[in-house]
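User: Here's a chain of 383 residues. Predict its fold as C-alpha coordinates.
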Amino acid sequence: MSEYIHTAYKKAARIQTVVCGFLFALFSFVYLYVFQRDVLEALHFSLAHGKTHFAPLASAIIITFILILLRWGVNCLLGLKGNVRAFSYLPSCLILGVLTDIGKNIYTEDYHTPWGWLLPIILLIYSLLVFWLRRLLRNRLNKESNPVSLMNYNLLILILLCLMTVLIGNTNRKFHHELEAERYLREHRYTEVLKVGEKSLEATRTLTVLRSIAMSRAGLLGEKLFAYPQYYRSDGLFFANDSMQTLRYTNDSIYYLLGVRPYTGEDRMEFLRNICYRGTGKYTALDYYLSALLLEKQIDAFGKALTDFYETEDTLSRYYKEALLMYRESHPNCPFLITDSILIKRYDEYHERKTDFASSVMERNGMRREFGDTYWWYFDYQE
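Assistant: Prediction complete.
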Protein backbone atom coordinates (compact mmCIF):
# COMPACT_ATOMS: atom_id res chain seq x y z
CA MET A 1 0.00 0.00 0.00
CA SER A 2 2.79 2.41 0.94
CA GLU A 3 4.53 1.63 -2.35
CA TYR A 4 1.33 2.52 -4.22
CA ILE A 5 1.08 5.81 -2.33
CA HIS A 6 4.73 6.55 -3.07
CA THR A 7 4.21 5.88 -6.78
CA ALA A 8 1.08 8.06 -6.84
CA TYR A 9 2.95 10.87 -5.09
CA LYS A 10 5.85 10.75 -7.56
CA LYS A 11 3.39 10.82 -10.45
CA ALA A 12 1.57 13.79 -8.90
CA ALA A 13 4.91 15.56 -8.37
CA ARG A 14 5.80 15.12 -12.04
CA ILE A 15 2.39 16.37 -13.12
CA GLN A 16 2.74 19.36 -10.80
CA THR A 17 6.16 20.17 -12.26
CA VAL A 18 4.84 20.00 -15.83
CA VAL A 19 1.69 22.02 -15.04
CA CYS A 20 3.59 24.77 -13.21
CA GLY A 21 6.22 24.87 -15.95
CA PHE A 22 3.57 25.19 -18.64
CA LEU A 23 1.64 27.87 -16.75
CA PHE A 24 4.80 29.89 -16.08
CA ALA A 25 5.87 29.64 -19.72
CA LEU A 26 2.40 30.74 -20.85
CA PHE A 27 2.35 33.63 -18.38
CA SER A 28 5.85 34.78 -19.31
CA PHE A 29 5.15 34.69 -23.05
CA VAL A 30 1.81 36.51 -22.83
CA TYR A 31 3.22 39.04 -20.34
CA LEU A 32 6.18 39.87 -22.59
CA TYR A 33 4.59 39.59 -26.03
CA VAL A 34 1.17 41.10 -25.29
CA PHE A 35 1.22 43.29 -22.18
CA GLN A 36 4.84 44.49 -22.07
CA ARG A 37 5.81 44.33 -25.73
CA ASP A 38 6.43 48.06 -26.08
CA VAL A 39 8.26 48.30 -22.75
CA LEU A 40 10.53 45.43 -23.78
CA GLU A 41 11.15 47.11 -27.13
CA ALA A 42 12.08 50.35 -25.36
CA LEU A 43 14.55 48.46 -23.16
CA HIS A 44 16.06 46.81 -26.24
CA PHE A 45 16.43 50.16 -28.00
CA SER A 46 18.12 51.69 -24.96
CA LEU A 47 20.59 48.82 -24.54
CA ALA A 48 21.35 48.44 -28.26
CA HIS A 49 21.25 52.20 -28.95
CA GLY A 50 18.93 51.49 -31.87
CA LYS A 51 21.61 49.56 -33.79
CA THR A 52 19.74 46.24 -33.93
CA HIS A 53 16.22 45.28 -34.95
CA PHE A 54 13.77 44.24 -32.24
CA ALA A 55 11.82 41.03 -32.85
CA PRO A 56 9.02 40.86 -30.25
CA LEU A 57 8.00 37.25 -30.87
CA ALA A 58 11.53 35.87 -30.82
CA SER A 59 12.43 38.00 -27.79
CA ALA A 60 9.45 36.75 -25.79
CA ILE A 61 10.22 33.11 -26.66
CA ILE A 62 13.95 33.37 -25.92
CA ILE A 63 13.50 35.19 -22.61
CA THR A 64 10.83 32.71 -21.53
CA PHE A 65 13.10 29.78 -22.41
CA ILE A 66 16.01 31.30 -20.47
CA LEU A 67 13.81 31.88 -17.43
CA ILE A 68 12.61 28.27 -17.52
CA LEU A 69 16.24 27.10 -17.65
CA LEU A 70 17.01 29.42 -14.74
CA ARG A 71 14.19 27.88 -12.73
CA TRP A 72 15.55 24.40 -13.49
CA GLY A 73 19.05 25.43 -12.39
CA VAL A 74 17.75 27.05 -9.20
CA ASN A 75 15.80 23.95 -8.27
CA CYS A 76 18.80 21.70 -8.93
CA LEU A 77 20.96 23.93 -6.76
CA LEU A 78 18.55 24.49 -3.89
CA GLY A 79 16.69 21.18 -4.00
CA LEU A 80 13.21 22.49 -3.25
CA LYS A 81 10.64 19.74 -2.87
CA GLY A 82 7.05 19.07 -1.99
CA ASN A 83 4.58 21.85 -1.36
CA VAL A 84 7.17 24.63 -1.81
CA ARG A 85 8.79 23.41 -5.02
CA ALA A 86 7.27 26.34 -6.98
CA PHE A 87 9.38 28.77 -4.93
CA SER A 88 12.15 27.92 -7.40
CA TYR A 89 10.30 30.25 -9.83
CA LEU A 90 10.98 33.29 -7.64
CA PRO A 91 14.25 34.35 -9.35
CA SER A 92 12.63 33.94 -12.80
CA CYS A 93 9.53 35.91 -11.81
CA LEU A 94 11.65 38.58 -10.15
CA ILE A 95 13.86 39.02 -13.22
CA LEU A 96 10.78 39.10 -15.44
CA GLY A 97 9.40 41.97 -13.36
CA VAL A 98 12.73 43.82 -13.28
CA LEU A 99 13.03 43.63 -17.09
CA THR A 100 9.75 45.52 -17.45
CA ASP A 101 10.20 47.99 -14.60
CA ILE A 102 11.32 50.96 -16.68
CA GLY A 103 10.09 54.53 -17.07
CA LYS A 104 10.56 57.47 -19.40
CA ASN A 105 14.15 57.96 -18.29
CA ILE A 106 15.05 54.77 -20.20
CA TYR A 107 16.25 56.90 -23.14
CA THR A 108 18.40 59.33 -21.14
CA GLU A 109 22.18 59.01 -21.26
CA ASP A 110 22.50 58.77 -17.48
CA TYR A 111 19.79 56.11 -17.15
CA HIS A 112 20.24 53.90 -14.13
CA THR A 113 18.02 51.71 -12.02
CA PRO A 114 18.29 50.64 -8.37
CA TRP A 115 17.70 47.08 -9.54
CA GLY A 116 21.34 46.99 -10.61
CA TRP A 117 22.38 46.53 -6.98
CA LEU A 118 19.06 45.53 -5.42
CA LEU A 119 18.45 42.43 -7.57
CA PRO A 120 21.72 40.63 -6.65
CA ILE A 121 21.11 41.34 -2.96
CA ILE A 122 17.56 39.95 -3.12
CA LEU A 123 18.73 36.82 -4.95
CA LEU A 124 21.54 36.30 -2.43
CA ILE A 125 19.14 36.65 0.50
CA TYR A 126 16.73 34.29 -1.24
CA SER A 127 19.43 31.64 -1.74
CA LEU A 128 20.69 31.85 1.84
CA LEU A 129 17.16 31.77 3.24
CA VAL A 130 16.18 28.73 1.17
CA PHE A 131 19.36 26.87 2.17
CA TRP A 132 18.65 27.60 5.83
CA LEU A 133 14.98 26.61 5.65
CA ARG A 134 15.78 23.45 3.71
CA ARG A 135 18.12 22.32 6.50
CA LEU A 136 15.67 23.38 9.18
CA LEU A 137 12.63 21.72 7.59
CA ARG A 138 14.36 18.78 5.92
CA ASN A 139 12.08 16.13 7.41
CA ARG A 140 8.90 18.01 6.53
CA LEU A 141 10.04 18.65 2.95
CA ASN A 142 10.88 14.99 2.44
CA LYS A 143 7.49 13.91 3.72
CA GLU A 144 5.11 12.88 0.96
CA SER A 145 1.94 14.98 1.19
CA ASN A 146 -1.46 14.57 -0.36
CA PRO A 147 -1.24 14.92 -4.19
CA VAL A 148 -4.11 17.43 -4.22
CA SER A 149 -2.41 19.57 -1.58
CA LEU A 150 0.85 19.30 -3.50
CA MET A 151 -0.77 20.74 -6.61
CA ASN A 152 -2.81 23.40 -4.82
CA TYR A 153 0.06 24.79 -2.73
CA ASN A 154 2.43 25.01 -5.68
CA LEU A 155 -0.18 26.62 -7.93
CA LEU A 156 -0.93 29.17 -5.21
CA ILE A 157 2.77 29.99 -4.86
CA LEU A 158 3.15 30.35 -8.63
CA ILE A 159 0.12 32.65 -8.86
CA LEU A 160 1.51 34.86 -6.09
CA LEU A 161 4.90 35.03 -7.82
CA CYS A 162 3.25 35.98 -11.12
CA LEU A 163 1.30 38.67 -9.29
CA MET A 164 4.60 39.93 -7.87
CA THR A 165 5.93 40.18 -11.43
CA VAL A 166 2.96 42.27 -12.53
CA LEU A 167 3.30 44.57 -9.51
CA ILE A 168 7.01 45.13 -10.18
CA GLY A 169 6.66 45.79 -13.92
CA ASN A 170 5.49 49.10 -15.34
CA THR A 171 1.71 48.94 -15.75
CA ASN A 172 1.15 52.67 -16.18
CA ARG A 173 -1.52 52.90 -18.87
CA LYS A 174 -0.49 56.38 -20.02
CA PHE A 175 3.12 55.29 -20.51
CA HIS A 176 2.05 52.19 -22.44
CA HIS A 177 -0.18 54.33 -24.68
CA GLU A 178 2.76 56.61 -25.45
CA LEU A 179 5.06 53.70 -26.30
CA GLU A 180 2.41 52.04 -28.47
CA ALA A 181 1.64 55.25 -30.37
CA GLU A 182 5.35 55.87 -30.87
CA ARG A 183 5.82 52.35 -32.28
CA TYR A 184 3.01 52.77 -34.79
CA LEU A 185 4.36 56.18 -35.77
CA ARG A 186 7.80 54.73 -36.52
CA GLU A 187 6.11 52.05 -38.63
CA HIS A 188 4.16 54.77 -40.54
CA ARG A 189 0.87 53.24 -39.40
CA TYR A 190 -0.81 56.57 -38.75
CA THR A 191 -4.35 55.21 -38.48
CA GLU A 192 -3.20 52.83 -35.73
CA VAL A 193 -1.60 55.73 -33.86
CA LEU A 194 -4.97 57.45 -33.70
CA LYS A 195 -6.63 54.30 -32.34
CA VAL A 196 -4.39 54.23 -29.25
CA GLY A 197 -6.45 55.33 -26.25
CA GLU A 198 -9.09 56.82 -28.54
CA LYS A 199 -11.93 56.10 -26.08
CA SER A 200 -10.11 57.56 -23.08
CA LEU A 201 -10.34 61.14 -21.84
CA GLU A 202 -6.79 60.81 -20.51
CA ALA A 203 -4.10 62.21 -22.78
CA THR A 204 -0.56 63.11 -21.79
CA ARG A 205 1.24 65.85 -23.64
CA THR A 206 3.53 63.30 -25.30
CA LEU A 207 0.59 61.23 -26.59
CA THR A 208 -1.15 64.40 -27.80
CA VAL A 209 1.94 65.43 -29.79
CA LEU A 210 2.38 61.94 -31.25
CA ARG A 211 -1.22 62.04 -32.41
CA SER A 212 -0.76 65.44 -34.04
CA ILE A 213 2.33 64.19 -35.91
CA ALA A 214 0.37 61.18 -37.18
CA MET A 215 -2.52 63.42 -38.25
CA SER A 216 -0.16 65.77 -40.05
CA ARG A 217 1.60 62.97 -41.91
CA ALA A 218 -1.77 61.49 -42.89
CA GLY A 219 -3.14 64.90 -43.91
CA LEU A 220 -5.83 64.75 -41.22
CA LEU A 221 -4.85 67.52 -38.81
CA GLY A 222 -7.81 69.69 -39.74
CA GLU A 223 -10.15 66.67 -39.79
CA LYS A 224 -9.24 64.85 -36.57
CA LEU A 225 -7.55 67.26 -34.15
CA PHE A 226 -10.51 67.97 -31.87
CA ALA A 227 -11.82 64.42 -31.99
CA TYR A 228 -9.28 63.84 -29.19
CA PRO A 229 -8.81 65.60 -25.84
CA GLN A 230 -6.76 68.79 -26.16
CA TYR A 231 -5.54 69.91 -22.74
CA TYR A 232 -2.35 71.75 -23.67
CA ARG A 233 -3.41 74.34 -26.25
CA SER A 234 -0.69 74.90 -28.87
CA ASP A 235 1.87 73.24 -26.57
CA GLY A 236 0.13 70.01 -27.55
CA LEU A 237 1.70 70.35 -31.00
CA PHE A 238 5.24 70.28 -29.61
CA PHE A 239 7.09 68.10 -27.12
CA ALA A 240 8.21 69.42 -23.78
CA ASN A 241 11.88 70.34 -23.67
CA ASP A 242 12.47 68.06 -20.67
CA SER A 243 13.74 64.72 -22.01
CA MET A 244 12.03 62.94 -19.11
CA GLN A 245 8.66 63.86 -20.61
CA THR A 246 9.32 62.66 -24.16
CA LEU A 247 10.29 59.35 -25.73
CA ARG A 248 12.39 58.77 -28.86
CA TYR A 249 10.66 61.48 -30.85
CA THR A 250 11.71 65.04 -30.06
CA ASN A 251 10.91 68.47 -31.42
CA ASP A 252 13.57 67.86 -34.07
CA SER A 253 11.10 65.38 -35.58
CA ILE A 254 8.49 68.13 -35.80
CA TYR A 255 10.90 70.71 -37.21
CA TYR A 256 11.81 68.19 -39.91
CA LEU A 257 8.11 67.76 -40.63
CA LEU A 258 7.69 71.54 -40.87
CA GLY A 259 10.87 72.00 -42.90
CA VAL A 260 12.35 74.74 -40.70
CA ARG A 261 13.87 75.10 -37.22
CA PRO A 262 13.03 78.11 -35.02
CA TYR A 263 15.60 80.62 -33.91
CA THR A 264 16.81 80.33 -30.34
CA GLY A 265 14.15 81.80 -28.05
CA GLU A 266 11.66 82.34 -30.88
CA ASP A 267 8.03 82.11 -29.79
CA ARG A 268 6.34 79.08 -31.32
CA MET A 269 3.28 80.93 -32.57
CA GLU A 270 5.50 83.56 -34.14
CA PHE A 271 7.68 80.81 -35.59
CA LEU A 272 4.71 79.09 -37.24
CA ARG A 273 3.36 82.39 -38.54
CA ASN A 274 6.71 83.40 -40.03
CA ILE A 275 7.34 80.16 -41.91
CA CYS A 276 3.84 80.30 -43.40
CA TYR A 277 3.89 83.94 -44.49
CA ARG A 278 7.49 83.77 -45.69
CA GLY A 279 6.92 80.47 -47.45
CA THR A 280 9.99 78.84 -45.91
CA GLY A 281 8.24 75.79 -44.49
CA LYS A 282 6.78 72.65 -46.02
CA TYR A 283 3.10 72.30 -46.91
CA THR A 284 2.49 70.78 -43.47
CA ALA A 285 3.42 74.06 -41.78
CA LEU A 286 0.13 75.75 -42.71
CA ASP A 287 -1.97 73.07 -41.02
CA TYR A 288 0.23 73.38 -37.93
CA TYR A 289 -0.21 77.16 -37.89
CA LEU A 290 -3.99 77.04 -38.38
CA SER A 291 -4.30 74.30 -35.76
CA ALA A 292 -2.20 76.30 -33.30
CA LEU A 293 -4.48 79.32 -33.79
CA LEU A 294 -7.54 77.17 -33.12
CA LEU A 295 -5.95 75.62 -30.04
CA GLU A 296 -5.17 79.10 -28.71
CA LYS A 297 -8.76 80.15 -29.57
CA GLN A 298 -7.51 82.98 -31.78
CA ILE A 299 -10.51 82.95 -34.09
CA ASP A 300 -9.83 86.35 -35.67
CA ALA A 301 -6.25 85.44 -36.54
CA PHE A 302 -7.50 82.12 -37.88
CA GLY A 303 -10.03 83.83 -40.14
CA LYS A 304 -7.39 86.19 -41.49
CA ALA A 305 -4.94 83.33 -42.14
CA LEU A 306 -7.65 81.34 -43.89
CA THR A 307 -8.37 84.30 -46.16
CA ASP A 308 -4.65 84.79 -46.85
CA PHE A 309 -3.83 81.19 -47.74
CA TYR A 310 -7.01 79.63 -49.12
CA GLU A 311 -9.14 80.39 -52.15
CA THR A 312 -12.89 80.66 -51.58
CA GLU A 313 -13.53 77.62 -53.76
CA ASP A 314 -11.06 75.43 -51.85
CA THR A 315 -12.43 72.52 -49.84
CA LEU A 316 -11.90 73.12 -46.13
CA SER A 317 -11.27 70.50 -43.47
CA ARG A 318 -13.96 69.76 -40.92
CA TYR A 319 -12.62 71.81 -38.02
CA TYR A 320 -11.71 74.73 -40.24
CA LYS A 321 -15.36 74.85 -41.33
CA GLU A 322 -16.57 74.61 -37.73
CA ALA A 323 -14.30 77.48 -36.71
CA LEU A 324 -15.34 79.45 -39.79
CA LEU A 325 -18.99 79.28 -38.71
CA MET A 326 -18.00 80.95 -35.44
CA TYR A 327 -15.82 83.48 -37.26
CA ARG A 328 -18.63 84.52 -39.63
CA GLU A 329 -20.86 85.46 -36.68
CA SER A 330 -18.60 88.44 -35.99
CA HIS A 331 -17.35 88.85 -39.57
CA PRO A 332 -20.40 88.52 -41.85
CA ASN A 333 -18.43 89.89 -44.82
CA CYS A 334 -16.02 86.95 -44.77
CA PRO A 335 -15.62 85.74 -48.38
CA PHE A 336 -15.87 82.08 -47.36
CA LEU A 337 -19.37 80.61 -47.35
CA ILE A 338 -20.43 77.45 -45.55
CA THR A 339 -22.93 75.52 -47.64
CA ASP A 340 -22.89 72.28 -45.62
CA SER A 341 -26.50 72.15 -44.40
CA ILE A 342 -25.80 69.30 -41.97
CA LEU A 343 -22.98 71.24 -40.33
CA ILE A 344 -25.09 74.41 -40.09
CA LYS A 345 -27.98 72.46 -38.56
CA ARG A 346 -25.70 70.90 -35.96
CA TYR A 347 -24.28 74.31 -35.06
CA ASP A 348 -27.81 75.61 -34.51
CA GLU A 349 -28.57 72.57 -32.34
CA TYR A 350 -25.39 73.27 -30.39
CA HIS A 351 -26.60 76.76 -29.48
CA GLU A 352 -30.11 75.55 -28.63
CA ARG A 353 -28.85 72.71 -26.45
CA LYS A 354 -26.71 75.03 -24.31
CA THR A 355 -29.85 76.51 -22.75
CA ASP A 356 -31.24 73.17 -21.52
CA PHE A 357 -29.03 72.65 -18.45
CA ALA A 358 -29.60 73.71 -14.85
CA SER A 359 -25.95 74.31 -13.90
CA SER A 360 -22.64 75.06 -15.56
CA VAL A 361 -21.22 71.68 -14.53
CA MET A 362 -24.18 69.81 -16.01
CA GLU A 363 -23.93 71.97 -19.11
CA ARG A 364 -20.24 71.24 -19.63
CA ASN A 365 -20.63 67.49 -19.14
CA GLY A 366 -23.83 67.24 -21.14
CA MET A 367 -22.44 69.24 -24.03
CA ARG A 368 -19.30 67.10 -24.00
CA ARG A 369 -21.37 63.95 -24.42
CA GLU A 370 -23.18 65.38 -27.44
CA PHE A 371 -20.66 67.79 -28.96
CA GLY A 372 -17.33 66.86 -27.36
CA ASP A 373 -15.78 66.10 -30.75
CA THR A 374 -16.46 69.59 -32.12
CA TYR A 375 -14.33 72.71 -32.11
CA TRP A 376 -17.27 74.60 -30.68
CA TRP A 377 -17.15 72.59 -27.46
CA TYR A 378 -13.40 73.10 -27.19
CA PHE A 379 -13.74 76.85 -27.69
CA ASP A 380 -16.52 77.29 -25.13
CA TYR A 381 -15.61 74.78 -22.43
CA GLN A 382 -12.01 73.60 -22.58
CA GLU A 383 -9.95 75.58 -20.10
